[in-house]
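Lecture notes, unit on binding sites. The following record was shown on slide 14. It pairs a sequence with adenosine-5'-diphosphate.
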Amino acid sequence: MTDTSARVVVLFNHVDEDEYEKIRHVDPSTLGFEPEYDIHVATVMEEYGEVVKALRRAGFKARAVNLRDDIKVLQRLVRRPPDVVFNMVEHFRDDPELESDVAGFLDLHQVAYTGSPPFALSLCRRKGLAKHVMLAQGVPTPRYRILLDAKIPRRHGLHYPLIVKPSREDASAGVERESVVYDYPGLLARIEHVFEDYGPPILVEEFIEGRELHVAVWGNDEPEVLPIIEFDFSDLPADVPNIISYDAKWNPLKEEFHRVFTVCPARLSKRALRRVRQAALAAYHATGCRDYARLDLRLTKQDHPFVLEVNPNPDLTEGVSFMEAAEQEGYEFEDALRIITELALGRMPEPEEPEEPSESTASAEGG
Ligand SMILES: Nc1ncnc2c1ncn2[C@@H]1O[C@H](COP(=O)(O)OP(=O)(O)O)[C@@H](O)[C@H]1O
Ligand SMILES: [Mg+2]
């Protein structure tokens, strides 16, 4: 049940100029292709504003706080904490590795917050390490090698095609059509390119042909799998591999953005659905996710699922990705946000009772 008096701070960190602000004045007729969607998408600030408004509709006393890379903002927040922080921080000082430290800071100050604890946040940032952990717990994930320099022997033991990704990025950074390679010279060239742009470690992974499924999971004691999202790549030009590249995901000025569609719920056989759900839940548990997460999977023709990565702090834009799945299950945006908030409110530390000194402590102190 909603504690309507609960005060919620939607916490985020935004300092850069907004790319989506800049494309506000781009004329769609100059793109050279027919855009399927509006190219004037919401800015980052507008997205956070929508979350605040929806939480208010859900009955909370919500407000937004932008960290602006300023530790003092965080210190002020913990000095007079809200009942719960809705944690949407993804980086600090441009460093995604500090995402988990912000959560850790809240933990140390016993401020309840939504989403995963620091350990899951940092584990999942390290894609290679997360795969290692998943494999050890029987979660299927594509075969891979982690490279610490731009070299790989010709006999690397993996089967082509392969995909080369930076190991510590997310949101498809460094994933382009050229990421998929079909032979050794192509592999070497791509490794060198990724190494130059992102540095080590680099993840070289077997490319899983087949369907792409994104699975939203939420809950803690008995996490629930929301309706599964499938990506339809059939409108992509023939020379573009069926992947969600950076441009397909984020760049409304690129044709790919307008040629990849989602279907929710994905049409899956009973067997496929059972296996996908099982793999997603196993990955959620193995990586220590809490409250909610989105898992990216591929499914082979033989119905074998492979977990590509776990996103413990996924995009929560209304109507897309995690929220598309929630909507399909019958949860409006504000309902879904309320449920996530309530999961965190349930973890609020009990207020400390002023303690009467017992005899033994009194004598210990005295002695
Ligand atoms: N092993 C793989 N097989 C097939 N496609 C892949 C594989 N790894 C990545 N991709 C494609 O690249 C996209 C981005 O990769 P992902 O591992 O999810 O990283 P991120 O989303 O953090 O950039 C995936 O959604 C998928 O389309
Ligand atoms: Mg992904």
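Take-home: The chain has twelve helices and 13 strands.
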